[in-house]
């Protein structure tokens, strides 16, 4: 943000130069925001940059170059790059459709047409259904009481589908008409899209439902080499130590689950054996009572 921002009244609508960082919201949103403010309007990148969504710490880097190009890195590896003018709608389009150009009325864009020489059969279209030739009027049919008898309809075995004329190349085909373009009078190039003359503050706008996220080691610099050296000093040792701790914690959790599963299976087996012993005892008692009854 610029130095004239009122930090005592910082909120989600506070003006900024650049918004950059990961956005993880619901299962469908896991992306890196790169938003530039230009002439009082915020512009979102037109590309989709996927962010990391695991439990480890990650380093996000945005590099703006004096030739109006950019690069986004995650953990020191390039994940996206390009041109500021092409990947954001910061400037009006260079070309626009000529408002005075119109497609000629006789312009034919139909590549294929129905063959005018392909006539239908003289006897007309073959019907899809016909009267059942095997049907007979019931003997007791009274046309005055039961209305005029008509045979039921059946599918016509001669019907081969709706007849359509053959398609041929259109001799008048001129191709797809392309609207001519002209230079946009509202377009003015800007060689300093990358440049913000006033930097004075950094703000974190966070909305989350799960605690535990930490943001630290934020650096704004005009030297890529200095930023890389800072990352090597702060992020690299943390990443290696964190990975080691995470693997140890995962292994401990795995052993704990195995022990719990083993204990649960032993308890289930013990309960099963108790149930079988109880069933066997009940059966022996029933057989003993039957023997007494016979005596």
Automatic annotation (TrEMBL):
Residues 106-117 have a biased composition (Acidic residues). Residues 99-129, 231-295 are annotated as: Disordered. The keyword Zinc applies. GO terms for biological process: ERAD pathway; protein folding. InterPro entries: Calret/calnex (IPR001580), Calreticulin/calnexin_P_dom_sf (IPR009033), ConA-like_dom_sf (IPR013320). It is found in: Endoplasmic reticulum lumen. One of its GO terms (cellular component) is endoplasmic reticulum membrane. The keyword Repeat applies. Keywords: Calcium, Chaperone, Endoplasmic reticulum, Lectin, Metal-binding, Repeat, Signal, Zinc. GO terms for molecular function: calcium ion binding; carbohydrate binding; unfolded protein binding. It comes from the Eukaryota. Residues 118-129, 236-283 have a biased composition (Basic and acidic residues). It holds the Pfam family Calreticulin. Belongs to the calreticulin family. This is Calreticulin. It comes from Steinernema carpocapsae.
